[in-house]
Amino acid sequence: MSFGKLILVRHGLSVYNDQNRFTGWKDVELNEQGISEAEQAVDLLENINFDIAFTSKLKRANDTLDIILKGIKQTSIPVEKNLALNERDYGDLIGQNKAEAAKEFGEEQVQIWRRSYDIPPPGGESLKDTADRVIPYLNEKILPHVIEGKNVIVSAHGNSIRAIVMALKGFSSEEILQTEIGWCEPWIFEFEGNKLTNLEIKSRPGSKSMSKLPN
C-alpha cells in the first residue's frame, strides 16, 4: 500500500486583503505580513519531502509557494501552474472595498454574493462555479500523484482550497460555507492509496488559527 500526503496552503495576506478589497483574479502581491506568514509556514513543513507542487496563475500564491520551497530547501521539485486553481472570480466586485460595495449594491446583496454557494456576483463566479473547475483538476492532475504515494503541496486561495476540501471531505454546500481556510496554515491530508486516512491543520507559530471546519 502506498502512503501519500496532500498539503494545501492558502497564500499569505495580500495588499488587497489588507485593504478589505475583493481580489479574485486581480494579480496583487503579498504585503509584508503575508510574506512573514509564508515564512512561518516553513517551520511547519520542513520535515516533509515533497515530490511535486501545484499552484494557481496568481502571484500571491506563486510567491507563497516560492518562499516555502526556498525555506525548506526543495526548489528543485517540479511546479505546475494552472488557472484551475485560481481564486474565485469576483467579477464586477474586484477592486472594491467591501464596505463600498455594500453601499453600492446593498449590504444584504453583497452578503448573498459572498456567502451563498451558487449565486455569483455580476460578471463573476459562485463558489459552485469555482468548484466546477477546481475539482476536475484535482481528480485528474493532483490526486493521481498522491495515490501513487507522493507528497504534494498545493499553494492556492481560500475558495479554490475550499473546493478541494469539499471534495475530499464530502462536505455539503452548507458545510463548505462554514469552512474557513487560514492564511498559510497547512492542511495536511494523509492517504493510504486512494483512501483518506487523516487530516491535520497546523497553526502558524504564535498565531491563533483562522481555519475552521463545520460544526
Just name the CATH architecture: 3-Layer(aba) Sandwich
Total count of domains: 1
- CATH topology: the name is Rossmann fold
Instruction: Give the CATH superfamily.
Output: Phosphoglycerate mutase-like
Structure description:
With 215 residues, the protein is an alpha/beta fold. It has one domain: Rossmann fold. Helix content is 40%, strand content 16%. It is built from 8 helices and 6 strands, in the order βααβαβαααβααββ. It has a 6-stranded mixed beta sheet. Helix 3 links the parallel strand 2 and strand 3.
List the helices and strands and how they pair.
Blueprint: E1 3-10, H1 15-18, H2 32-45, E2 52-55, H3 59-71, E3 79-81, H4 98-105, H5 107-115, H6 127-147, E4 151-156, H7 158-169, H8 173-177, E5 187-192, E6 195-201
Parallel strand pairs: 1-4, 2-3, 2-4
Antiparallel strand pairs: 1-5, 5-6
What descriptors fit this protein?
215 residues; alpha/beta; 6-stranded mixed beta sheet; 8 helices; Rossmann fold; 40% helix
What's the short story on this structure?
This protein has a six-stranded mixed β-sheet. It contains eight helices and six strands, in the order βααβαβαααβααββ. The chain has helices at residues 15-18, 32-45, 59-71, 98-105, 107-115, 127-147, 158-169, 173-177, and strands at 3-10, 52-55, 79-81, 151-156, 187-192, 195-201.
